[in-house]
Design brief:
Blueprint lengths: L1 H81 L7 H11 L3 E5 L5 E4 L13 H4 L3 H4 L5 E2 L3 E3 L4 E9 L6 E6 L2 H9 L2 H5 L7 E7 L5 E3 L18 H5 L4 E5 L2 E10 L2 E8 H4 L1 H48 L13 H157 L4 H126 L1
Antiparallel strand pairs: 1-2, 1-6, 3-5, 4-5, 5-6, 7-8, 7-11, 9-10, 10-11
Helix pairs in contact: 1-5, 1-9, 9-10, 10-11
C-alpha cells in the first residue's frame, strides 16, 4: 500500500518541482534580460552623453580660443597703427610674435597680397589663390569684419593650424596671425572616438562605434574589426537593426546582448557577454535544483514513515480483526483510535458486527414463523380447492349466458342497419327539398331586384316628364310672346302702308307659326300628362307586386327554415342511430370480451386447481421436513 501511495506522490512532487524550476527559470531569465537591458541602455546613454559633452566642450573651447586670438590680432593691428614702420623690421616682428605668443604674423596690402610678416616664404602670395585664404578677402571691403577660421591641418607642416584676421587700422589691408591651438588639439585628441570608448570596455561588457554614414565599424576594442561593414560582424540589418532596441545577437561569433544609441555621426553600441549575463541565473537554478532534490528526498522519507505509523499499521490491525469476524467470531471488536477516521471505521465495524448478530437472531425467529405459515398455507390450499371447483361451475354457466347474449345482439344490430338505411333515404329527400326551397328564394330575390330596377326607371321617367312639362311650358310662353310680337309687327306694317306689306306677310306667318307651336305644345303636354298618370298607376302596381313578392319571400324563407330544421332533426336521428349502432358494437365487444374472460376464468380456475395441488404438496413436504 505504501508503494502504491508513494509512487504517485513522488510523481506529483516531481512534477511540482519541475514546474517550479521552469517558473523560476523563466522569472530569472526575464530578470537577467531586464537587468542587462537596463545596464546596456544606461551604458549607451552614458557614452553618448559623454561624446556630446566633449563636443560641447570643444565648441566652447573653439569659441573662447577664437575670441582670445582675435584680441591678439587686434593688438597687432593697433601696434601697426601706432608704428607702421615695424612691419619692415623683422626683429620687431619676431618680438611681437613672442609678445603675442603666436606662431606667425602676416600683413596683407589693399590688393590682397602678403607683403610683410615673419614667414618670408609667403611674401607675394595672393590671398585669392586658395579657398582657405580667400575667406579673408571680404575684410578689405568691410573693415569692421573679423574672421577666426576653424582649425585646419597645415599641409606643409602636417599639424593643426588656425588663422585669425582683422583689418588694418591705419590703412586698407589685413592683419593676420597664425598659431597651433595646442589646447584645442589636445581636446580633439582626447575626444577621439577610440579614446572615449576604450575606458568603457572590460572583459564582460563594452562598447563600440558604427559610422552612420557608411555603416562601417568606426572603433572597436578589436582593431582588426575597424573599417569592416556592420553586416560582416553579424549585424544583419546594419545600423538601423540595432538602434534603440536591445537584442541578443552574435558579434564576430560572440553571443552578446546589445543595444545601439544615436550619438551624432556615430551609433554607440553597448554590449554584454551573454554567458556572463545569465551566469547568475544559472548559478541560482543549480542551487535551487539541488535544494529541491534534497527537499523531495527528505519529504518522501518523512511521508513513508508517517504512512507506516499512521495508516499501514492501523489497517493491519483492522484486517486481522475482520479476518476473525469472517470466521464467525462475532464477539470480536475493533479498537483502533489513532485518528478520527480510524476511530469512525472501528465504530462502524463494531456496529456492523452487532447488527449482524441481531440479524441472525431474527433469522431464527423468521424460520419458526415460516413453519407456522406452512401449516396455515396447507389449510388455505384446501379451502381454495373447494372454491375453485365452485368457480369452475360458475364460469360454465356464464359461458352459456354470454353465448345467448351474443345471438340477441347480432339480431339487434341487423335491425339498426335497416333503420339507418331508411333514415339515409329520408335525409336525401329532405336535402333535395332544401335545395328547391333555396332556388325558389333565389328566384324571388331576382324578382325583387328587377322590380327595384323598374321602380327606379319609372322614377327617372317621371322626373324626365316633369322636365319636359317645364320645357313645353317655356315653349308655350315663347309662342305667346312670338304671337304678341307678330301682332305688333302687323300693326307696324299697317302703319307703314305699302312699304310694310312684305313685313306684314312675314309677321302673319310668324303669328301662324306661333299658334301652331302653342297647339303642338298643348297636345304634347296632354300626352305627357296621360303618360305621368299611367306611370303613377304603374308605380302603385309595382309597389303591390313588390309587397306580394316580399310576402312570398318571407314564406319561402319560413319554408326553407322548416326544411333546415327537418334536415337537422334527420341528421340528429342519423347520429342517434349511429350512437345506438356504436353502443351495440360496444355491447357486442363487451359480450365477446366476457366470453374471452369466461374462457380465461375457466382456464385460470383450472390452473388454480393445479397450483393448489402443488401448494398442498409443498405444504406436506414442509411439514414432513419439520418432523
Amino acid at each position: 500500500m505504501q508503494n502504491k501511495f508513494l509512487k504517485p506522490a513522488s510523481i506529483v512532487i516531481s512534477i511540482a518541482m519541475i514546474i517550479t524550476l521552469v517558473i523560476v527559470f523563466a522569472f530569472q531569465t526575464v530578470n537577467a534580460y531586464r537587468d542587462a537591458d537596463t545596464r546596456l541602455s544606461y551604458l549607451a546613454d552614458e557614452v553618448g552623453q559623454k561624446l556630446i559633452e566633449n563636443e560641447q566642450e570643444i565648441e566652447q573651447l573653439k569659441i573662447s580660443t577664437g575670441e582670445d586670438f582675435l584680441a591678439r590680432a587686434r593688438a597687432f593691428s593697433a601696434m601697426i597703427e601706432q608704428n607702421p614702420a615695424i612691419i619692415y623690421d623683422m626683429d620687431k616682428l619676431n618680438e611681437i610674435l613672442v609678445l603675442l605668443d603666436v606662431d606667425e604674423v602676416h600683413v596683407i596690402d589693399g590688393n590682397g597680397i602678403i607683403q610683410w610678416g615673419t614667414v618670408p616664404g609667403y611674401y607675394g602670395f595672393d590671398m585669392r589663390g586658395s579657398d582657405q585664404t580667400a575667406e579673408f578677402m571680404p575684410i578689405l571691403q568691410n573693415p569692421s569684419m573679423e574672421l577666426a577660421q576653424e582649425p585646419q591641418p597645415n599641409g606643409a607642416m602636417g599639424i593643426l593650424f588656425q588663422y585669425i584676421g582683422v583689418s588694418r587700422y591705419d590703412e586698407p589691408g589685413i592683419v593676420q596671425i597664425g598659431m597651433q591651438p595646442e589646447r584645442l588639439e589636445a581636446a580633439l585628441k582626447n575626444n577621439e572616438i577610440g579614446n572615449v570608448l576604450k575606458i568603457y570596455v572590460d572583459g564582460e561588457e563594452g562598447v563600440f562605434a558604427l559610422n552612420k554614414a557608411d555603416n562601417t565599424i568606426a572603433w572597436h576594442n578589436d582593431t582588426a574589426l575597424i573599417g569592416l561593414q556592420a553586416e560582416e560582424i553579424g549585424l544583419k540589418n546594419g545600423v538601423d537593426g540595432i538602434l534603440d532596441e536591445c537584442q541578443t545577437i552574435k558579434i564576430n561569433g560572440q553571443k552578446v546582448r546589445a543595444i545601439g544609441q544615436d550619438a551624432g555621426d556615430y551609433v554607440i553600441v553597448a554590449y554584454k557577454d551573454y554567458s556572463a549575463m545569465v551566469s547568475t541565473r544559472n548559478l541560482q537554478m543549480l542551487v535551487l535544483l539541488i535544494s529541491d532534490i534534497v527537499v523531495v528526498v527528505v519529504t518522501m522519507l518523512v511521508i513513508r514513515v508517517l504512512l507506516r505509523r499512521k495508516i499501514t499499521q492501523p489497517l493491519e490491525i483492522i484486517g486481522k480483526e475482520l479476518a476473525a469476524i469472517e470466521q464467525g467470531d462475532l464477539n470480536r471488536s475493533v479498537e483502533v483510535r489513532d485518528c478520527p477516521e480510524f476511530e469512525q471505521l472501528s465504530d462502524g465495524i463494531n456496529s456492523m458486527v452487532a447488527s449482524l448478530g441481531e440479524k441472525m437472531k431474527q433469522s431464527r425467529l423468521l424460520y419458526q414463523k415460516q413453519q407456522e405459515v406452512a401449516v396455515k398455507v396447507g389449510e388455505i390450499s384446501t379451502t381454495l380447492r373447494v372454491l375453485s371447483d365452485n368457480n369452475l361451475n360458475t364460469a360454465e354457466k356464464l359461458d352459456l349466458g354470454a353465448s345467448m347474449q351474443m345471438s340477441s345482439i347480432e339480431r339487434l344490430a341487423n335491425s339498426i342497419n335497416e333503420l339507418e338505411q331508411q333514415l339515409s333515404t329520408d335525409n336525401e329527400k329532405v336535402k333535395q327539398a332544401g335545395h328547391v326551397s333555396v332556388e325558389a328564394e333565389e328566384s324571388l330575390n331576382n324578382g325583387i331586384d328587377a322590380l327595384r330596377q323598374l321602380t327606379a326607371v319609372m322614377e327617372d321617367l317621371n322626373q324626365k316628364s316633369n322636365e319636359i312639362q317645364l320645357v313645353i311650358k317655356a315653349i308655350d310662353d315663347i309662342s305667346f310672346q312670338t304671337n304678341i310680337l307678330a301682332l305688333n309687327a302687323a300693326v307696324e306694317a299697317a302703319r307703314a302702308g305699302a312699304a310694310g306689306k312684305g313685313f306684314a306677310v312675314v309677321a302673319d306667318e310668324v303669328r301662324n307659326l306661333a299658334s301652331k307651336s302653342a297647339e303642338s305644345a298643348k297636345q304634347t303636354a296632354d300626352m305627357i300628362g296621360k303618360t305621368v298618370t299611367l306611370m303613377q298607376s304603374g308605380e302603385v302596381l309595382s309597389e303591390q307586386a313588390n309587397r306580394i313578392i316580399h310576402e312570398s319571400m318571407e314564406k319561402s324563407r319560413e319554408a326553407n327554415r322548416l326544411t333546415g330544421e327537418i334536415l337537422e332533426a334527420s341528421a340528429r336521428q342519423h347520429d342517434t342511430v349511429e350512437e345506438i349502432r356504436t353502443a351495440s358494437d360496444q355491447v357486442k365487444d363487451i359480450v365477446h370480451n366476457n366470453l374471452l374472460v369466461v374462457e380465461e376464468t375457466k382456464q385460470g380456475v383450472s390452473d388454480l386447481l393445479d397450483e393448489v395441488q402443488n401448494l398442498q404438496t409443498l405444504s406436506e413436504r414442509n411439514m414432513n421436513l419439520k418432523r
